[in-house]
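Same chain as my last thread, 278 residues:
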Amino acid sequence: MPVVAQNSRLGNILWPTLAWVVALIFFFPIFWMVFTSFKTDADAVKPEYLFVFKPTLENYINMTENYDYWRFAINSIITATFATTFALVVGVPAAYAMAFNPSRRTKDVLVWMLSTKMLPAAAVLYPMTYLTKNFLQIFDTHFLIILVLCLINLPIVIWMLFTYFKEIPKEIIEAGKMDGVSIWGEIKDILIPLAWGGIASTALLCFIFCWNEAYWTVRLTTTDAATLSKLIEGNRAPEGLFFGRLSAVSTAAVGPIVVLGWFCQKQLVRGLTFGAVK
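reply #2:
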């Protein structure tokens, strides 16, 4: 018994300590980014000012006055919100059909959708740019970015929703059919309330993916629909990177999504561990 108690006490100290170490390792890049954002570009590259320096808000003032931060932020909000909404509008009925009315090809379709995520984005960059510029005339528009973000995240959305919906007993849906509920009624009145935690967590993750998307938002925009990723990419020049300004812009871009994740963490955990009947 004393040996068991000793091992228990050791585990109670070891595992929390290990968890804190891992958390600090993951948090350190964010801390250093915020820390550097209060340095000037000159101080950010000088070893003698690594920890001791005079804090300044110059980078943030320059970001809002000269780089029009709010326009880029609004574009990010618009594109991420609408792309997430459209992905859910398509994903919920698709996952419902695959979960409760599967066919012999359902698994093949799911694998095919997931396989599209394996396609290198660079492989289709030229045709995408050529078509949107010369034929469709939608280059650098909100519609294009929303469409692209929706499509590239749709496989993940459908896979996650399919997994959540499979946890719901079919008997509940069949009982609704026996009561004369329509398909739309089943989705709206039965499925969504039961799977709300999973849908919310899927929406949150999809929004984060859309917000963080850099490859397509940088290459398919110039000014009108440019997001915060484009603003971050613009803080470089032939002579090098402006680390102070780059850190400030990155902090302003990462900040909203970190705060959103912090406030929604309970909903996110609930959704990721979702199950209608345990």
